[in-house]
Amino acid sequence: MRFVASAGGAVALTLAVVPMTTVRAAALNPDHENNRIACTADALKDAIDNANGKGGGTIALARGCRYLLDAIDPNSGPSGGPNGLPVVTTPITLRGGKGTSVERSSASGTEEFRIFEVAAPAGFLTLDDLTVRNGHADGDGLAGDGGAVFVNVGRTLLLRSVTLTHNAADGNGGAVNNESGRVIVRSSKVDRNVAGGDGGGIDSEEGVLTIDSSTVDRNTAGENGGGIALSDDAYLTLTKSSVDRNAAVGNAGGIQNAGHLFLRSSHVDRNTAGQEGGGILSSSTAVIDSGSMVGNTAGTDGGGIFNSSVLTIGHSSVNANSAQRGGGIHNIGKVWIGRSVLKDNLAVTEGGGLWNDDQATTESTDIIGNRTSGLGSRGGGVFNNSGNTVLTDTTVTRNEAVMEGGGVFEASGSKVTLVRTRVKDNDPDNCSPSGMITGCAG
């Protein structure tokens, strides 16, 4: 497996792919058109075994069928965890139809197991037009990762018009765990999954994750990344998609980024974190273009976004988020915000819109209607704790603080610079301490 930079600067993962051959699956059902397999778990297992033996192929599933799995497949994969179906080791496509699902039985006494595992030498699993439900990855370490699908090193999972729902992992990745492979999600739903560790919906340990025109909603993580968790050297490109209404007991209600995040025309809204980063927690490089971070909540800092690395935000909305500090954005790294809006965010103590402790720059941005609510709270629009905040061609208006710095508060030893910026109509004052910020009347 090797990483290769594309012409556009994004990163792709180059993987060896074995050419897919056409295979006619075993256990054909003559009552279904196009040689669709019978609606039984045994027929599906036989078909996967047969396809693996022939070097790959396409398996047509019966429309409207629930393929109920009630036992662990005897041959475990490299993860070491139990699976409901044979390990996919060649390029295989499962093609469903209206009402088709593959699921672990919910009958009392059914053992816990994930549904799919994708492994060497040439595993490339494509799921097309079906639902995968009720998988449960059981065990410690990798065995407990990926409630619906576990993707091994260098392998690929492609989802097209697929729903992954009500799956669970004792460890990471309530629905999917990507262990240094490649996962592509198109026009699909990852919702209502649960992880005991990181990544309530999807956990990506290195490798590449691409999500397009899809939803990762209402998932829960017992640790970090309610919707999605990225580890070091993982890459996520999120396009025209949503990561909404997820929850994490720890950090990052929506997305935990410890890798590389590229978010375009997507929204991360109404997520909840028990600690930092209600919407997004980013400790590595991130680019947000035409994004929405609205209505997120953090128990401590960074209602919309918590940033400790290098973050670029353009043409985006960070609105109506809440936290103890930094209702909209809490920055202890380097953040550039251009042509964006920070509006109606709430902090209990400091920095309703923006809280900065390193380097923050805004250009052509509106910081409007943010507030602090606690007794003695300061910096309704901006609270500069230390480091430098530079506001260029920016409007800071109608923000409120309980004590001082309704618009901007500059802590001792820090620096706020206004360049062609208007700070007006804030309450109880525009800038504090009075006379310390050049170009701003108290």
Task: Provide a quick synopsis of the model.
This protein has 442 residues and is mainly β. The protein has one helix and 49 strands.
Secondary-structure map with pairings?
Elements (H helix, E strand, L loop, with lengths): L1 E4 L5 E4 L26 H13 L3 E4 L5 E4 L21 E5 L5 E4 L11 E3 L5 E10 L2 E2 L11 E3 L4 E10 L2 E2 L6 E4 L2 E5 L2 E3 L2 E2 L6 E4 L2 E5 L2 E3 L2 E2 L6 E3 L4 E5 L7 E2 L6 E3 L2 E5 L7 E2 L6 E3 L3 E4 L2 E3 L2 E2 L6 E3 L2 E5 L2 E3 L2 E4 L3 E3 L2 E5 L2 E3 L2 E5 L3 E3 L2 E5 L2 E3 L2 E2 L9 E3 L3 E5 L2 E3 L10 E3 L4 E5 L2 E3 L6 E2 L10
Parallel strand pairs: 3-5, 4-6, 5-8, 6-8, 7-10, 8-11, 9-12, 10-13, 11-14, 11-15, 12-16, 13-17, 14-18, 15-19, 16-20, 17-21, 18-22, 20-23, 21-24, 22-25, 23-26, 24-27, 25-28, 26-30, 27-31, 28-32, 29-33, 31-35, 32-36, 33-37, 34-38, 35-39, 36-40, 37-41, 38-42, 39-43, 40-44, 41-45, 43-46, 44-47, ...
Antiparallel strand pairs: 1-2
Describe this structure in words.
With 442 residues, the protein is an all-beta fold. It is built from 1 helix and 49 strands. The protein folds into 2 domains: 227 residues, no CATH class; 176 residues. The strands form 6 sheets. It has an 18-stranded parallel β-sheet that branches. A 13-stranded parallel β-sheet has the order 7-10-13-17-21-24-27-31-35-39-43-46-49, with no helix packed on it. Strand 1 and strand 2 form a beta hairpin. The N and C termini lie far apart (58 Å). The N terminus is likely disordered.
